[in-house]
């Protein structure tokens, strides 16, 4: 069965994941359509990060199924490299390569992994840096950039692989309040262009503004989900209400 | 209102002695102990050593009743060109070749230690531990005595000189220590770097060679130089096995001068000086690089 765009681009069915005897995910299911922006929120330790790390097979799962474009991720014979070319990921701590300039960070994967032509890659990399508003920082090393700038380089680095889905793992959690906004604006631009985005975030205002759908997880299960308006204004589950009352 | 601190603002609640935290260890334990120690020696020390090497022979010369032959310093002076050009140059060649061979072998062994293939990883670990923790002289004896003095390949007989065997024997502990430097440097890169590369579809091999190793090269240079200095200091042990490096030639020179006892201190003192003057700048440079690279990270 081949995947067609009218089917979910990412489909999780009853996903179970444990670290040793500690069960982190206890049966998570969600369907994400192409072009959707999904925000996963919830208290610390509820398994949000683990969940999105499972989508590009950085973590393996013990049960259930994760399909990305019709391909089962939870499969020993999975071609991880093919999967990761389709799924980009941005981390909380940026994880840029410190020995490479911003431009080289963006160019590296297309050059070494996709073996693309160097001139074309460079043109695209410069465009991407421009898109994340980092013109003029091409030759700066990560150590010379602010957290927000580094995170935008990381986003550009991920986009350089032309992914179909982008995963954002608490990408603003390590940033100064002043630089959070510049990163959120970048993600908003991406969402507006129709990129499928799955975000784990604590930025409720942002989630409300950009998300098509919000998932609230607690203790390894999805407690409640829905479009932002109903979710934020008419939460039904007491756990959701309590969480929202604490942070809003 | 002042703070309530028992024993200061109020009577102590206990008469038990207060347990202080243990004092900090006197020495910083790093991987560069040898170079740190050597580089910490002030510059006047070699001058003092030289002075001692001069005073002693003059003293013993003045004590001798019938000064029928040359002073020890005159004798030493005659021998210095020979000792340096034949002896010390050869010492340096042995140390450089040993370091080169040990580095090449050690890099492979170190990469073997981080292999995902269990048998390779375990074998590399045990080879590393065995050669790191064996007495160098014993390794040297094994290589010297068990290796053939000539190899016949396709009908051509190639002699294997003693110094080549010595290079191989000394390169074994160097290999093991370089292996540990490589493994340690790779382990020092945060695992997040591996994950970032993984999420960009880099293979493990690409990640290692394009992302991880380029970050560790700088970190490996100071300990690598430290081992070169240690190795150079250790090369005289090959003289026991008849390799004609500086120590061996010094002994022969003294014998050629009829084993005059007043020659011992100036001659061996001279050898000591030469080693010191060769390794001291290396140690200073090692520590400087270590500080410079430490700031970058």
Tell me about this structure.
The complex is a heterodimer of chains A (248) and B (297). By secondary structure, chain A is α/β, with parallel strands linked by helices. Chain A has helices at 48-55, 80-86, 102-112, 118-131, 147-159, 177-192, 204-210, 228-233, 238-247; strands at 10-19, 22-32, 37-41, 63-68, 71-72, 87-90, 165-169, 196-200, 213-218, 221-226. In chain A, helix 3 (102-112) runs parallel beside helix 5. The model of chain B has no long low-confidence stretch (mean pLDDT 84). Chain B has ten helices and two strands. In chain B, helix 1 (33-39) packs across helix 10 (264-296), helix 5 (136-146) crosses helix 6 (162-188) and helix 7 (191-199) runs antiparallel to helix 8. Chain B has a two-stranded antiparallel sheet. By secondary structure, chain B is mainly alpha-helical. In chain B, strand 1 (150-153) and strand 2 (156-159) form a beta hairpin. Chain B has helices at 33-39, 44-63, 72-113, 118-132, 136-146, 162-188, 191-199, 204-234, 246-256, 264-296, and strands at 150-153, 156-159. Chain B has a single domain (33-49, 72-292), classed as MetI-like fold, CATH 1.10.3720.10. Helices cover 69% and strands 3% of the residues of chain B. Chain B is flat, with a radius of gyration of 27 Å. Chain B starts with 32 loop residues before the first helix and ends with a helix. The interface between A and B is medium-sized, with 26 and 17 residues.
- The share of residues in helices of chain A is 25-40%
Topology pattern of chain A, helix = H, strand = E: EEEHEEHEHHHEHEHEEHH
Give the overall pLDDT of chain B as a whole number: 84
Examine the coordinates and then state which fold CATH places here, giving the name of the CATH topology of chain B: MetI-like fold
Strand content of chain B: under 5%
> What is the gyration radius of chain B calculated from CA atoms?
27 Å
Largest sheet of chain B, if any?
Answer: 2 strands, antiparallel
Radius of gyration of chain A: 18 Å
* Interface with most residues: A-B, 26 and 17 residues
Compute the separation of the termini of chain A in Å.
Answer: 44 Å
Q: What is the tally of beta strands of chain B? A: 2
Structural class of chain A: alpha/beta
Q: What is the name of the CATH superfamily of chain B?
A: MetI-like
Uncertain runs of chain B are none
- Gross geometry of chain B: flat
Report the helical percentage of chain B: 55-70%
Distance between the termini of chain B: 46 Å
- The averaged pLDDT of chain A comes out at 89
| Major β-sheet profile of chain A | 6 strands, mixed
Classify the oligomer: heterodimer
The total count of strands of chain A amounts to 10
